[in-house]
Amino acid sequence: MLMVDIIRKKRDGGVLSREETEFFINGYVKGEIPDYQVSALMMAIYFRGMNDEETHDLTRAMLNSGEKLDLSAVKGFKVDKHSTGGVGDKTSLVLTPMVASCGVPVAKMSGRGLGHTGGTIDKLESFKGFSTSITNEQFIHNVNTIGIALMGQTKDLAPADKLLYALRDVTATVDNMSLIASSIMSKKLAASADGIVLDVKSGSGAFMKNDNDAFELANKMVAIGKNAGVKVMAVVSDMDQPLGRAVGNAIEVREAIDTLNGKGPEDLYELCLTLGSYMLKFAGAASTVDEARSSLEDAISSGGALDKLGDLIEGQGGNRDDVCHPENLPVASKQRDLCAKEDGFVSAIKSEDVGIASLLLGGGRRSKEDVIDLSVGIYLNRKVGEQVKKGDVIATLYGNDDKKIDEAYKRLAGAYEFAANSVPAKKLIKGIVE
């Protein structure tokens, strides 16, 4: 079997067999197939797509490309969560301590950033000393003792996904439905959680630009989970504008802490309540979604969720005092305000352009070797539907390099659209797939 024949077959619209899929996955993991050939195949898949059987075969091959995490020693029903990615999406930083503080063990595998901003791991590394490079034994110990742990994807756990994840990031082949579904579900199934809640984004700042595609992806992933015997459900949520107001890394951590203090943005809080309610229901900690929601609200008002974030940070090498003093987190040396040029209302914020502005500041990766500047970011003072007066600050950029700030400023200015009359924001929760 030759890799060039597999590339040609998919380029011409053919259907890959299970044997062909296993051949290229196993060959890539072993280093026998070079990046440039796999890049070519990813691009062919991007344009030609994969049917359901191919997607299942790819998920299975990636899942079996390495070890699976053995969580049999973890007590209780273990839940995990994954988002398909968006701008300002710091949901895991709020959601996981909320759920863990309600007595449900959270054993979460997290990743680094795809494109414009960092991933959950990057954001959490804003806490000096915090590390997700922990052993399986420590991961299990932390879940059993404090109820929560976040671990980076090790080289032995679904290694094919880790290799493809980085390659797709720098070859513009991220936003393909089958590649997203197989990537997410291979590593989620390898992490061995009993229940998985998926946040599938829809809109200008998401991989899925419209609701139909988002629901198709959600159904595809839920079906993969069902076939594997794992409880999986998906929430389809809006990403036509950034989630919350902070975009970056440390700046998003500060907003997450505000939310755990009951002072965060309404959309971020609502999404966390929705996702968390299903996580609690999956685990049997609540009999209904409404009951679960009430428990999560109590976790915020009592301070239990914030304490649990402190447990997480301390349990993985960070200083829990930084949770109470987020001003200790990295801060950029320069800032520039974007001001309104006329009176009116914000009618749209192009999420993707906001994300690219953050990338230009240094908050994301242009290549897989790039180092993220955790201190830079953007704060959106005005969002869709909100009124502005000429001269009002509608957004603030935080950076460390004037040239980068200039580039980001131009991109951010083009992300905002205005109207004479108020335009309501789109519904945050588009639907549920169970």
In a nutshell, what does this entry contain?
This protein is of the alpha/beta class and 434 residues long.
Kindly describe this structure:
- The chain folds into 3 domains: 3-49, Up-down Bundle (Transferase, Pyrimidine Nucleoside Phosphorylase, Chain A, domain 3); 79-327, Pyrimidine Nucleoside Phosphorylase, Chain A, domain 2 (3-Layer(aba) Sandwich); 331-419, Aldehyde Oxidoreductase, domain 3 (Alpha-Beta Complex), CATH 3.90.1170.30.
- The protein is 45% helix and 16% strand.
- The chain has 17 helices and 13 strands.
- The strands form 4 sheets. The protein has a 4-stranded mixed sheet with strand order 1-4-5-13, with helices on both faces. It has a 4-stranded antiparallel sheet with strand order 6-9-11-7.
- The longest helix is centred in the middle third of the chain and has 17 residues, at 211-227.
- It starts with a helix and ends with a strand.
- The model has no long low-confidence stretch (mean pLDDT 93).
